[in-house]
Structures are given as structure tokens and as C-alpha cells.
Amino acid sequence: MEPIITELLVLQLIYTFLLNELKEERGAIKENDVEIEDDESLIIPHIKISLVKITNEVQNNVLINEILQYTNDENETSKLNINDILRIIENSFVPSIFKVSLMNGQLNFQNLKLMEVKKLIMGKYLQFRTKQLDEIQKLDDDIIGKLNISSSSPNVTTAMTSSAAKSSSGNNIIDPKREKLLKLYRDTVLNRLQSKNKLLDELYLNLEKEGNYHKIVHKIIEIEMIKNETPRSVHYLQLILQRSISDGIMSSYTGSKTWEIARQVQVDFDDTVQFMRRALE
């Protein structure tokens, strides 16, 4: 797992604990929460949080464990320990900006500007996001490059010409029995996927309403194409369904209704694929 992910997790926890501690001390009510977080002039003379409390939360928080599960390398199974957390604190809270000391298992912050902690987290987040966007752009360029090479390949041209020649001579390219089986598989998968509440249809309707779909997705997979065209293979049908669900997730704000629908469609799709795999076996 990238170190910056663990840094963001630990720093966000520390920020949350500091904010909660400050609210308890001041008896802050809900209406004033935003003012406390965004007050750049706010200086906290002295505040402390338990290092054990931070460690327990890092090791036992359900969301953090899920993040670690999906970001750890195959040989990484251990959770962050107290020494890892101390190392992150030492490297992140530089003495020139923050006055932090450890005494009796408590992290003591003196003359702390809460806004500086927020800026620290946002800086690391933007650094991480920029790196991820650069990697995604590189992958996009590699894929487009390979597609361009494939489309200009003489072998592909020959194969297309050969297929066209067969088609014009009246020979069937797809065996009728195989075509019938593929259509049956397509209809069975879609019927099972949509059987409960037609969430796939609802996903596409919501994407159209939001209007982000066409701006974000380069080549949209139309739902009518999925329903009506004969897939090239079983795996191809799974591929275009997975891509359409992924496009829906990436085109929606996290936590929005459309995003939640797309996530549920993903769960239903995984169950459907497993069911069909067992049925075919």
C-alpha cells in the first residue's frame, strides 16, 4: 500500500479527534461546527488526544479495514501498529509549523491552528489525486495507442476483408445454434439482473437526468444495444455489462442516489455471474 494512503487515514483520524475534543471543551453546537473548522484565526493553546485511542481506531475501524484490504499488496496483511502511527506523526507534523509532544501516551498539541491540520490533509490528498490522475491518463494513452496499432495492423485488415468476403458470398459467419445460445444467455443474464427492481434501467435513467454521463464517458454503451444485439461471446457480454456499471459509478458523485444504484447493480451483477457460471458448469 502506498504510504500516502496510510498518512491520509491517520491524519484524518487525528483531525477528527481534535475537532471532537475541541467541540466538547467549548460545548459547540451543531450550527457552529462549520465556523470552528473554517476559522483560520483559531488557535488552540493546548489540546491532547490519546495515542492508544488513535491506534485502536486505525486497527478496528470497519471502513479503514476495507480500504486497507483493497489497497494492500498480496504479501501485506498486517495492520498499522503504534510505531507506524508515530512515524507518520513525526514525518507529517513538522516542528516549524506544529508543536507536538508525546507524554504518558498522550499527543500534546500546543498553540495549534486547526486550519493548518486541514491544509496538511488537503495537500496530501491533492498530491495523491494528481498522481492517480496521471497514472490513469498514462493507461488511457497506452490503451488508445494499442487500439490504434491494432486498427492499422495488416492482419486485422486482412481478417476484416476475409470476413466481408465470406459474408458477401452468403456464408454464415456465426453458427445459428451458437447465436441462439448466446441470445439465450444474454436474455437470462439480463432477466436475472433486472428481476428484482430493474435497477440497470434505473441507473441509465438517472445518468441521463444528471447529465454528467456524456461529459465523462468517452464511448457510451447504450442499454438498448446490450438488450438487443447478440454478444460475441459469454465473456464479451460480461465485459460490456461490467463496463456500463463502472461508467455509472465513475460518472456519479460518491454517495449520490445514482452512485448507490450503480453499486447495488454491481452487487447484483456479481451474484448473477456466479449463478450463471454454476449453471453452465
From TrEMBL:
GO terms for cellular component: cytosol; NuA4 histone acetyltransferase complex; nucleosome disassembly/reassembly complex. It comes from the Eukaryota. GO terms for biological process: DNA repair; DNA replication-dependent chromatin assembly; nucleosome disassembly; positive regulation of transcription elongation by RNA polymerase II. This is Uncharacterized protein.
